[in-house]
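Cross-posted from the bioinformatics board.
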Amino acid sequence: MSDLDRILVGQSESHLASFDGGVLVHREVVAPLRLLQERAERDGVELKVASGFRGFETQLNIWNQKAQGKRKLLDSEGRPLDFQKLSEDEIISAILRWSALPGASRHHWGTDLDVFDAKALKKGVRLQLVPQEAAPGGPFAEFSRWLGENLLEEKFFRPYSRDLGGVSPEWWHISFEPVSKPYFEKLSLSLLEKTLAATELEKKNLVLKRLPEIYKKYIVNITQ
Ligand SMILES: [Zn+2]
């Protein structure tokens, strides 16, 4: 597998740099992210990154724990589900609404980040990154609006801004388009298939069987 292929599926870290001595991001995202942060600062917003790069193994652990019922599963509205009552197909769909398939997370690329406004978070309130925080009256309603108005200026966008029936909307998830778009276009169904076939993925056979549908509904189904 080429290094580019390994980057696409989260099995390489050769493309990463640390941002402000902390979170790992794609090295070509460091400067644009700083510009975005400066733009935010001018508007009184303290833009912070809650999560940047996430590798294949981390995503695999999340997946396997959920698929084994060791981590809670939610329905598409965010209500807890009873693991015992779900079919294997339902378990897979429930995971995919909220968590990426290992190998298919945009966080593998370092181009995609979860962000929040540190100033808007009141003392003692825990950051959750849930839709309600950006609802009217929520702590990040104003920040989410700010993102909508300013991201494009720095070539960022939100791939999960609306509910397209796949991944649940994520107002906090931003992506640096000049780098993520070429990656997005190169992440093929066959690369994913080859990657997953060689790993210890829970429910692997069913996932591989459903992969064309999963690819269409949860991976390439984004707001551009
Ligand atoms: Zn994210």
